[in-house]
Protein backbone atom coordinates (compact mmCIF):
# COMPACT_ATOMS: atom_id res chain seq x y z
CA UNK A 1 0.00 0.00 0.00
CA UNK A 2 1.73 3.17 -1.26
CA UNK A 3 1.59 6.55 0.46
CA UNK A 4 0.79 8.10 -2.93
CA UNK A 5 -2.61 6.37 -2.92
CA UNK A 6 -5.72 7.58 -1.17
CA UNK A 7 -6.04 4.35 0.82
CA UNK A 8 -2.40 4.54 2.00
CA UNK A 9 -2.66 8.12 3.16
CA UNK A 10 -6.03 7.44 4.77
CA UNK A 11 -4.54 4.56 6.77
CA UNK A 12 -1.55 6.64 7.90
CA UNK A 13 -3.69 9.58 8.91
CA UNK A 14 -6.06 7.29 10.78
CA UNK A 15 -3.16 5.82 12.76
CA UNK A 16 -1.76 9.26 13.53
CA UNK A 17 -5.11 10.60 14.72
CA UNK A 18 -5.78 7.54 16.89
CA UNK A 19 -2.30 7.80 18.45
CA UNK A 20 -2.86 11.50 19.05
CA UNK A 21 -6.11 10.68 20.81
CA UNK A 22 -4.37 8.05 22.92
CA UNK A 23 -1.63 10.51 23.86
CA UNK A 24 -4.30 12.91 25.03
CA UNK A 25 -5.75 10.10 27.13
CA UNK A 26 -2.31 9.01 28.42
CA UNK A 27 -1.69 12.04 30.65
CA UNK A 28 -4.99 11.76 32.57
CA UNK A 29 -4.44 8.00 32.84
CA UNK A 30 -0.96 8.51 34.32
CA UNK A 31 -2.37 11.10 36.74
CA UNK A 32 -5.01 8.61 37.93
CA UNK A 33 -2.43 5.84 38.16
CA UNK A 34 -0.15 8.07 40.32
CA UNK A 35 -3.07 8.99 42.56
CA UNK A 36 -4.00 5.31 43.01
CA UNK A 37 -0.37 4.45 43.75
CA UNK A 38 -0.07 7.13 46.47
CA UNK A 39 -3.42 6.21 48.00
CA UNK A 40 -2.35 2.57 48.14
CA UNK A 41 0.83 3.62 50.01
CA UNK A 42 -1.30 5.60 52.45
CA UNK A 43 -3.53 2.59 53.00
CA UNK A 44 -0.59 0.22 53.54
CA UNK A 45 1.00 2.74 55.92
CA UNK A 46 -2.27 2.96 57.87
CA UNK A 47 -2.42 -0.84 58.20
CA UNK A 48 1.20 -0.91 59.42
CA UNK A 49 0.45 1.78 62.03
CA UNK A 50 -2.58 -0.12 63.29
CA UNK A 51 -0.28 -3.03 64.21
CA UNK A 52 1.52 -0.76 66.64
CA UNK A 53 -1.64 0.82 68.02
CA UNK A 54 -3.16 -2.60 68.66
CA UNK A 55 -0.30 -3.63 71.00
CA UNK A 56 -0.38 -0.44 73.09
CA UNK A 57 3.38 -0.71 73.38
CA UNK A 58 6.44 -0.06 71.30
CA UNK A 59 7.63 -2.52 68.69
CA UNK A 60 11.06 -3.91 68.25
CA UNK A 61 13.17 -1.85 65.86
CA UNK A 62 13.57 -4.71 63.37
CA UNK A 63 9.76 -5.30 63.31
CA UNK A 64 9.14 -1.58 62.85
CA UNK A 65 11.58 -1.45 59.96
CA UNK A 66 9.87 -4.46 58.36
CA UNK A 67 6.45 -2.79 58.63
CA UNK A 68 7.79 0.41 57.03
CA UNK A 69 9.54 -1.55 54.27
CA UNK A 70 6.40 -3.51 53.48
CA UNK A 71 4.42 -0.26 53.39
CA UNK A 72 7.09 1.35 51.16
CA UNK A 73 7.45 4.46 53.34
CA UNK A 74 9.98 6.04 55.74
CA UNK A 75 7.62 7.17 58.49
CA UNK A 76 3.93 7.39 59.33
CA UNK A 77 2.15 10.20 61.17
CA UNK A 78 -1.48 9.93 62.35
CA UNK A 79 -3.63 12.72 63.61
CA UNK A 80 -6.35 11.51 65.96
CA UNK A 81 -8.45 13.65 68.26
CA UNK A 82 -6.50 16.71 67.14
CA UNK A 83 -3.28 15.05 68.31
CA UNK A 84 -0.48 14.53 65.80
CA UNK A 85 1.44 11.30 66.56
CA UNK A 86 4.52 9.85 64.87
CA UNK A 87 3.53 6.18 64.77
CA UNK A 88 6.31 4.62 62.70
CA UNK A 89 9.61 6.18 61.80
CA UNK A 90 12.96 5.45 60.22
CA UNK A 91 15.85 7.57 58.97
CA UNK A 92 14.98 9.75 55.95
CA UNK A 93 17.70 9.62 53.25
CA UNK A 94 17.35 13.27 52.28
CA UNK A 95 15.36 16.45 52.53
CA UNK A 96 11.69 16.46 51.57
CA UNK A 97 11.40 17.87 48.04
CA UNK A 98 7.63 18.36 47.90
CA UNK A 99 4.40 17.81 49.81
CA UNK A 100 1.20 16.54 48.17
CA UNK A 101 -2.18 16.74 49.90
CA UNK A 102 -4.47 14.21 48.21
CA UNK A 103 -7.52 15.54 49.99
CA UNK A 104 -7.60 18.80 48.02
CA UNK A 105 -5.83 18.31 44.69
CA UNK A 106 -7.49 19.52 41.42
CA UNK A 107 -7.22 17.34 38.36
CA UNK A 108 -5.01 19.75 36.43
CA UNK A 109 -2.62 19.98 39.39
CA UNK A 110 -2.53 16.19 39.68
CA UNK A 111 -1.83 15.85 35.94
CA UNK A 112 0.92 18.45 36.11
CA UNK A 113 2.55 16.70 39.11
CA UNK A 114 2.37 13.33 37.35
CA UNK A 115 4.06 14.72 34.24
CA UNK A 116 6.77 16.41 36.34
CA UNK A 117 7.56 13.20 38.26
CA UNK A 118 7.60 11.18 35.05
CA UNK A 119 10.10 13.53 33.41
CA UNK A 120 12.36 13.91 36.49
CA UNK A 121 14.89 11.03 36.61
CA UNK A 122 16.17 11.91 40.14
CA UNK A 123 14.94 9.97 43.16
CA UNK A 124 13.40 12.43 45.62
CA UNK A 125 11.73 12.23 49.04
CA UNK A 126 8.15 13.50 49.15
CA UNK A 127 5.52 13.92 51.82
CA UNK A 128 2.00 12.64 51.07
CA UNK A 129 -1.06 13.63 53.12
CA UNK A 130 -4.43 11.94 52.88
CA UNK A 131 -7.55 10.90 54.74
CA UNK A 132 -7.39 7.60 56.68
CA UNK A 133 -9.51 4.68 55.52
CA UNK A 134 -12.82 4.08 57.37
CA UNK A 135 -12.42 7.40 59.20
CA UNK A 136 -9.65 5.99 61.45
CA UNK A 137 -8.43 9.44 62.37
CA UNK A 138 -8.33 12.93 60.96
CA UNK A 139 -5.41 12.50 58.55
CA UNK A 140 -2.47 10.30 57.76
CA UNK A 141 0.90 11.56 56.61
CA UNK A 142 3.75 9.54 55.10
CA UNK A 143 7.17 10.19 53.63
CA UNK A 144 8.47 8.14 50.71
CA UNK A 145 10.79 8.28 47.73
CA UNK A 146 9.70 8.60 44.08
CA UNK A 147 11.88 5.86 42.55
CA UNK A 148 9.32 3.07 42.58
CA UNK A 149 6.52 5.46 41.63
CA UNK A 150 8.38 6.62 38.52
CA UNK A 151 9.30 3.05 37.51
CA UNK A 152 5.72 1.88 37.72
CA UNK A 153 4.41 4.99 35.93
CA UNK A 154 6.85 4.37 33.05
CA UNK A 155 5.84 0.70 32.88
CA UNK A 156 2.15 1.63 32.92
CA UNK A 157 2.63 4.28 30.24
CA UNK A 158 4.51 1.90 27.94
CA UNK A 159 1.84 -0.77 28.32
CA UNK A 160 -0.85 1.81 27.56
CA UNK A 161 1.02 3.03 24.49
CA UNK A 162 1.50 -0.52 23.25
CA UNK A 163 -2.20 -1.25 23.61
CA UNK A 164 -3.02 2.07 21.94
CA UNK A 165 -0.72 1.28 19.02
CA UNK A 166 -2.35 -2.11 18.59
CA UNK A 167 -5.81 -0.53 18.61
CA UNK A 168 -4.60 2.17 16.23
CA UNK A 169 -3.39 -0.36 13.71
CA UNK A 170 -6.59 -2.37 14.00
CA UNK A 171 -8.71 0.76 13.68
CA UNK A 172 -6.71 1.95 10.68
CA UNK A 173 -7.14 -1.41 8.96
CA UNK A 174 -10.89 -1.48 9.62
CA UNK A 175 -11.31 2.11 8.44
CA UNK A 176 -9.19 1.37 5.37
CA UNK A 177 -11.40 -1.60 4.49
CA UNK A 178 -14.49 0.56 4.99
CA UNK A 179 -12.99 3.34 2.87
CA UNK A 180 -12.12 0.84 0.15
CA UNK A 181 -15.70 -0.41 -0.04
CA UNK A 182 -17.48 2.91 0.43
CA UNK A 183 -15.20 5.35 -1.43
CA UNK A 184 -12.35 3.83 -3.38
CA UNK A 185 -14.36 1.17 -5.22
CA UNK A 186 -16.89 3.75 -6.53
CA UNK A 187 -14.05 6.15 -7.38
CA UNK A 188 -12.21 3.43 -9.32
CA UNK A 189 -15.47 2.72 -11.13
CA UNK A 190 -15.73 6.37 -12.14
CA UNK A 191 -12.08 6.35 -13.27
CA UNK A 192 -12.62 3.23 -15.38
CA UNK A 193 -15.65 4.84 -17.02
CA UNK A 194 -13.67 8.01 -17.71
CA UNK A 195 -10.86 5.97 -19.26
CA UNK A 196 -13.28 4.00 -21.42
CA UNK A 197 -15.02 7.20 -22.46
CA UNK A 198 -11.70 8.87 -23.32
CA UNK A 199 -10.88 5.97 -25.66
CA UNK A 200 -14.22 6.25 -27.50
CA UNK A 201 -16.01 9.53 -26.71
CA UNK A 202 -18.38 9.14 -29.66
CA UNK A 203 -19.73 5.85 -28.30
CA UNK A 204 -22.79 6.53 -26.14
CA UNK A 205 -22.41 3.12 -24.48
CA UNK A 206 -19.37 4.39 -22.56
CA UNK A 207 -21.42 7.09 -20.79
CA UNK A 208 -21.60 6.29 -17.09
CA UNK A 209 -24.91 5.37 -15.46
CA UNK A 210 -25.14 6.84 -11.92
CA UNK A 211 -25.46 4.00 -9.40
CA UNK A 212 -23.47 5.05 -6.30
CA UNK A 213 -25.33 4.81 -3.01
CA UNK A 214 -23.54 7.76 -1.42
CA UNK A 215 -25.28 11.01 -2.29
CA UNK A 216 -22.05 12.88 -3.07
CA UNK A 217 -20.67 10.16 -5.35
CA UNK A 218 -24.04 9.77 -7.05
CA UNK A 219 -24.11 13.49 -7.70
CA UNK A 220 -20.57 13.33 -9.13
CA UNK A 221 -21.57 10.43 -11.41
CA UNK A 222 -24.66 12.32 -12.54
CA UNK A 223 -22.57 15.41 -13.36
CA UNK A 224 -20.06 13.23 -15.24
CA UNK A 225 -22.88 11.56 -17.20
CA UNK A 226 -24.33 14.97 -18.13
CA UNK A 227 -20.90 16.20 -19.26
CA UNK A 228 -20.24 13.03 -21.28
CA UNK A 229 -23.67 13.31 -22.94
CA UNK A 230 -23.00 16.93 -23.90
CA UNK A 231 -19.52 16.16 -25.24
CA UNK A 232 -20.76 13.16 -27.21
CA UNK A 233 -23.55 15.21 -28.78
CA UNK A 234 -21.08 17.98 -29.63
CA UNK A 235 -18.63 15.52 -31.19
CA UNK A 236 -21.39 13.94 -33.26
CA UNK A 237 -22.53 17.36 -34.44
CA UNK A 238 -18.96 18.32 -35.33
CA UNK A 239 -18.57 15.05 -37.21
CA UNK A 240 -21.76 15.76 -39.16
CA UNK A 241 -20.53 19.29 -39.87
CA UNK A 242 -17.22 17.92 -41.12
CA UNK A 243 -19.01 15.48 -43.40
CA UNK A 244 -21.31 18.25 -44.58
CA UNK A 245 -18.28 20.47 -45.26
CA UNK A 246 -16.67 17.78 -47.39
CA UNK A 247 -19.88 17.26 -49.31
CA UNK A 248 -20.31 21.00 -49.86
CA UNK A 249 -16.73 21.30 -51.05
CA UNK A 250 -17.25 18.55 -53.65
CA UNK A 251 -20.53 20.10 -54.78
CA UNK A 252 -18.96 23.55 -54.95
CA UNK A 253 -16.14 22.22 -57.11
CA UNK A 254 -18.52 20.84 -59.73
CA UNK A 255 -20.91 23.78 -59.40
CA UNK A 256 -18.08 26.21 -60.02
CA UNK A 257 -17.31 24.50 -63.33
CA UNK A 258 -20.98 24.64 -64.33
CA UNK A 259 -21.30 28.31 -63.37
CA UNK A 260 -18.11 29.18 -65.24
CA UNK A 261 -19.65 27.78 -68.38
CA UNK A 262 -22.88 29.68 -67.68
CA UNK A 263 -20.84 32.85 -67.18
CA UNK A 264 -19.30 32.48 -70.62
CA UNK A 265 -22.73 32.22 -72.21
CA UNK A 266 -24.06 35.09 -70.10
CA UNK A 267 -21.29 37.36 -71.38
CA UNK A 268 -22.59 36.84 -74.90
CA UNK A 269 -26.06 38.06 -73.91
CA UNK A 270 -24.69 41.60 -73.73
CA UNK A 271 -24.38 41.57 -77.55
CA UNK A 272 -28.01 40.52 -77.99
CA UNK A 273 -30.20 42.70 -80.18
CA UNK A 274 -33.07 42.44 -77.68
CA UNK A 275 -32.94 45.58 -75.44
CA UNK A 276 -34.54 43.74 -72.50
CA UNK A 277 -31.93 40.99 -72.70
CA UNK A 278 -29.11 43.55 -72.85
CA UNK A 279 -30.49 45.28 -69.73
CA UNK A 280 -30.80 42.00 -67.81
CA UNK A 281 -27.43 40.62 -68.94
CA UNK A 282 -25.21 42.64 -66.52
CA UNK A 283 -27.33 41.62 -63.54
CA UNK A 284 -27.20 38.01 -64.63
CA UNK A 285 -23.43 38.20 -65.07
CA UNK A 286 -23.03 39.77 -61.63
CA UNK A 287 -25.16 37.07 -60.02
CA UNK A 288 -23.21 34.30 -61.70
CA UNK A 289 -19.92 35.97 -60.71
CA UNK A 290 -21.01 36.04 -57.07
CA UNK A 291 -21.99 32.38 -57.28
CA UNK A 292 -18.59 31.47 -58.76
CA UNK A 293 -16.82 33.51 -56.08
CA UNK A 294 -18.85 31.77 -53.36
CA UNK A 295 -17.91 28.36 -54.74
CA UNK A 296 -14.24 29.33 -54.77
CA UNK A 297 -14.32 30.54 -51.16
CA UNK A 298 -16.14 27.36 -50.14
CA UNK A 299 -13.34 25.31 -51.69
CA UNK A 300 -10.90 27.33 -49.53
CA UNK A 301 -12.89 26.41 -46.42
CA UNK A 302 -10.09 24.23 -45.05
CA UNK A 303 -9.69 26.41 -41.96
CA UNK A 304 -13.42 26.21 -41.17
CA UNK A 305 -13.79 30.02 -41.29
CA UNK A 306 -14.80 32.72 -43.73
CA UNK A 307 -11.97 34.33 -45.74
CA UNK A 308 -10.70 37.70 -44.59
CA UNK A 309 -12.68 40.60 -46.08
CA UNK A 310 -11.29 42.46 -49.07
CA UNK A 311 -12.20 46.05 -48.19
CA UNK A 312 -13.18 48.73 -50.66
CA UNK A 313 -15.28 51.89 -50.61
CA UNK A 314 -18.65 51.68 -52.34
CA UNK A 315 -22.09 53.21 -52.34
CA UNK A 316 -24.33 51.40 -49.88
CA UNK A 317 -27.56 52.55 -51.51
CA UNK A 318 -26.70 50.74 -54.75
CA UNK A 319 -25.90 47.53 -52.86
CA UNK A 320 -29.17 47.68 -50.92
CA UNK A 321 -31.05 48.22 -54.20
CA UNK A 322 -29.52 45.01 -55.60
CA UNK A 323 -30.54 43.06 -52.51
CA UNK A 324 -34.13 44.33 -52.46
CA UNK A 325 -34.53 43.83 -56.21
CA UNK A 326 -33.38 40.21 -55.98
CA UNK A 327 -35.65 39.49 -53.00
CA UNK A 328 -38.61 41.21 -54.67
CA UNK A 329 -38.22 38.96 -57.70
CA UNK A 330 -38.09 35.91 -55.41
CA UNK A 331 -41.22 37.07 -53.56
CA UNK A 332 -43.16 37.47 -56.81
CA UNK A 333 -42.50 33.84 -57.70
CA UNK A 334 -44.17 32.49 -54.51
CA UNK A 335 -47.77 31.50 -55.18
CA UNK A 336 -50.39 32.17 -52.52
CA UNK A 337 -48.18 34.48 -50.45
CA UNK A 338 -49.28 37.97 -49.49
CA UNK A 339 -47.74 41.02 -51.08
CA UNK A 340 -44.40 42.04 -49.60
CA UNK A 341 -43.32 45.66 -49.81
CA UNK A 342 -39.64 46.56 -49.69
CA UNK A 343 -38.73 49.93 -48.22
CA UNK A 344 -35.27 51.51 -48.06
CA UNK A 345 -34.06 54.39 -45.96
CA UNK A 346 -30.43 54.75 -47.06
CA UNK A 347 -28.87 58.13 -47.84
CA UNK A 348 -28.05 58.15 -51.58
CA UNK A 349 -24.51 59.37 -51.05
CA UNK A 350 -23.60 57.09 -48.12
CA UNK A 351 -20.21 55.51 -48.83
CA UNK A 352 -18.94 52.76 -46.57
CA UNK A 353 -15.79 50.64 -46.46
CA UNK A 354 -16.35 46.87 -46.41
CA UNK A 355 -16.17 43.73 -48.50
CA UNK A 356 -18.98 44.34 -50.99
CA UNK A 357 -19.68 40.69 -51.79
CA UNK A 358 -19.66 39.65 -48.13
CA UNK A 359 -21.95 42.52 -47.12
CA UNK A 360 -24.27 41.55 -49.99
CA UNK A 361 -24.45 38.04 -48.50
CA UNK A 362 -25.20 39.43 -45.04
CA UNK A 363 -28.05 41.67 -46.23
CA UNK A 364 -29.32 38.97 -48.56
CA UNK A 365 -29.47 36.40 -45.74
CA UNK A 366 -31.29 38.80 -43.41
CA UNK A 367 -33.72 39.91 -46.14
CA UNK A 368 -34.36 36.33 -47.22
CA UNK A 369 -35.12 35.26 -43.65
CA UNK A 370 -37.54 38.20 -43.30
CA UNK A 371 -39.23 37.43 -46.63
CA UNK A 372 -39.67 33.75 -45.82
CA UNK A 373 -41.06 34.56 -42.38
CA UNK A 374 -43.70 36.86 -43.89
CA UNK A 375 -44.50 34.39 -46.67
CA UNK A 376 -45.16 31.69 -44.08
CA UNK A 377 -48.01 33.81 -42.63
CA UNK A 378 -49.72 34.11 -46.06
CA UNK A 379 -50.34 37.76 -45.21
CA UNK A 380 -48.97 41.03 -46.62
CA UNK A 381 -45.89 42.44 -44.97
CA UNK A 382 -43.08 44.96 -45.16
CA UNK A 383 -39.30 44.64 -45.16
CA UNK A 384 -37.31 47.79 -44.49
CA UNK A 385 -33.57 48.37 -44.79
CA UNK A 386 -32.19 51.58 -43.31
CA UNK A 387 -28.68 52.86 -42.73
CA UNK A 388 -26.75 55.71 -41.18
CA UNK A 389 -23.37 56.67 -39.77
CA UNK A 390 -21.69 58.49 -36.91
CA UNK A 391 -18.10 59.25 -35.97
CA UNK A 392 -17.33 55.69 -34.85
CA UNK A 393 -19.30 53.38 -37.16
CA UNK A 394 -21.73 52.70 -39.94
CA UNK A 395 -24.98 50.96 -38.98
CA UNK A 396 -27.53 49.13 -41.11
CA UNK A 397 -30.99 48.11 -39.84
CA UNK A 398 -33.02 45.29 -41.39
CA UNK A 399 -36.56 44.98 -40.07
CA UNK A 400 -39.77 43.22 -41.02
CA UNK A 401 -43.41 42.96 -39.94
CA UNK A 402 -43.34 39.18 -39.67
CA UNK A 403 -44.46 37.00 -36.76
CA UNK A 404 -41.19 37.33 -34.81
CA UNK A 405 -38.65 34.68 -33.87
CA UNK A 406 -39.65 31.75 -31.63
CA UNK A 407 -37.92 31.38 -28.25
CA UNK A 408 -35.68 28.52 -29.41
CA UNK A 409 -34.42 30.60 -32.33
CA UNK A 410 -33.66 33.54 -30.01
CA UNK A 411 -31.80 31.30 -27.53
CA UNK A 412 -29.53 29.87 -30.27
CA UNK A 413 -29.68 32.85 -32.59
CA UNK A 414 -26.25 32.77 -34.24
CA UNK A 415 -25.42 29.06 -33.79
CA UNK A 416 -25.38 26.97 -36.98
CA UNK A 417 -28.08 24.29 -37.26
CA UNK A 418 -29.67 25.57 -34.03
CA UNK A 419 -31.15 29.01 -34.63
CA UNK A 420 -33.45 28.23 -37.54
CA UNK A 421 -36.99 29.59 -37.20
CA UNK A 422 -38.45 28.17 -40.41
CA UNK A 423 -39.54 24.56 -40.79
CA UNK A 424 -36.99 22.80 -42.97
CA UNK A 425 -34.43 25.60 -42.50
CA UNK A 426 -30.85 24.89 -41.46
CA UNK A 427 -30.23 27.92 -39.28
CA UNK A 428 -27.06 28.72 -41.23
CA UNK A 429 -28.12 32.12 -42.59
CA UNK A 430 -27.81 34.09 -39.37
CA UNK A 431 -24.67 32.20 -38.34
CA UNK A 432 -22.99 33.06 -41.66
CA UNK A 433 -24.13 36.68 -41.45
CA UNK A 434 -22.83 37.10 -37.89
CA UNK A 435 -19.49 35.52 -38.87
CA UNK A 436 -19.07 37.82 -41.87
CA UNK A 437 -19.86 40.94 -39.84
CA UNK A 438 -17.47 39.79 -37.10
CA UNK A 439 -14.70 39.45 -39.69
CA UNK A 440 -15.18 43.15 -40.40
CA UNK A 441 -14.56 43.94 -36.73
CA UNK A 442 -18.26 44.68 -36.25
CA UNK A 443 -21.22 42.94 -34.69
CA UNK A 444 -24.71 41.80 -35.61
CA UNK A 445 -27.36 42.16 -32.92
CA UNK A 446 -31.06 41.49 -32.54
CA UNK A 447 -32.81 44.73 -31.56
CA UNK A 448 -36.28 43.28 -31.09
CA UNK A 449 -38.43 40.29 -32.02
CA UNK A 450 -42.10 40.13 -31.07
CA UNK A 451 -45.54 39.80 -32.61
CA UNK A 452 -44.99 43.12 -34.44
CA UNK A 453 -41.91 41.86 -36.26
CA UNK A 454 -38.14 41.49 -36.03
CA UNK A 455 -35.31 43.97 -36.43
CA UNK A 456 -31.55 43.36 -36.71
CA UNK A 457 -28.76 45.93 -36.72
CA UNK A 458 -25.29 45.67 -38.26
CA UNK A 459 -22.49 47.74 -36.74
CA UNK A 460 -19.40 48.25 -38.94
CA UNK A 461 -16.55 50.24 -37.36
CA UNK A 462 -14.74 52.94 -39.29
CA UNK A 463 -11.40 51.95 -37.73
CA UNK A 464 -9.70 48.89 -39.17
CA UNK A 465 -7.95 47.82 -35.94
CA UNK A 466 -8.30 44.10 -35.31
CA UNK A 467 -9.51 43.32 -38.86
CA UNK A 468 -7.41 40.84 -40.85
CA UNK A 469 -7.41 41.98 -44.48
CA UNK A 470 -7.11 39.74 -47.49
CA UNK A 471 -3.88 40.15 -49.37
CA UNK A 472 -4.17 42.73 -52.07
CA UNK A 473 -4.81 46.44 -52.48
CA UNK A 474 -7.83 48.20 -51.02
CA UNK A 475 -9.79 50.12 -53.63
CA UNK A 476 -11.04 53.43 -52.34
From TrEMBL:
Q: What does the record give under GO molecular function?
A: ATP binding; phosphorelay sensor kinase activity
Q: Where are the transmembrane segments?
A: 6-27, 156-179
Entry keyword annotation includes Metal-binding: no
Q: Which InterPro entries match?
A: HATPase_C_sf, HATPase_dom, His_kinase_dom, HisK_dim/P_dom, HisK_dim/P_sf, Sig_transdc_His_kin-like_C
Residue stretches making up the Histidine kinase domain: 250-464
Q: Which reaction does it catalyse?
A: ATP + protein L-histidine = ADP + protein N-phospho-L-histidine
Query: Would I find Transferase among this entry's keywords?
Result: yes
Question: Which superkingdom is the protein from?
Answer: Bacteria
Identify the EC number(s): 2.7.13.3
Q: Which residues form a coiled coil?
A: none
| EC top class, as a word | transferase
Q: Please give the name of this protein.
A: histidine kinase
Q: Which organism is it from?
A: Paracoccus laeviglucosivorans
Amino acid sequence: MSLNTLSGRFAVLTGIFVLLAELLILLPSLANYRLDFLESRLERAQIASLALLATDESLASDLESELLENAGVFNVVLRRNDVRQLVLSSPIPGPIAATYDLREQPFLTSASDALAQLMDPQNQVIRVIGAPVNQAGQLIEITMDTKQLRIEMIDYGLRLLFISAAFSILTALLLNVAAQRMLLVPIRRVISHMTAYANAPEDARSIITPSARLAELNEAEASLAAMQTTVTSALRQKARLAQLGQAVARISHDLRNILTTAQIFADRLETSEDPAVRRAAPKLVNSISRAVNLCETTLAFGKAEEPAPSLSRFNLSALVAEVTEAEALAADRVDGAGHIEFLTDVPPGLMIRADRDQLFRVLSNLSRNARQAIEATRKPGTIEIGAGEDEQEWFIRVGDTGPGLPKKARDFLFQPFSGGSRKGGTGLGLAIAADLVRNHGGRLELLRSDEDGTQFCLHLPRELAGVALRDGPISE
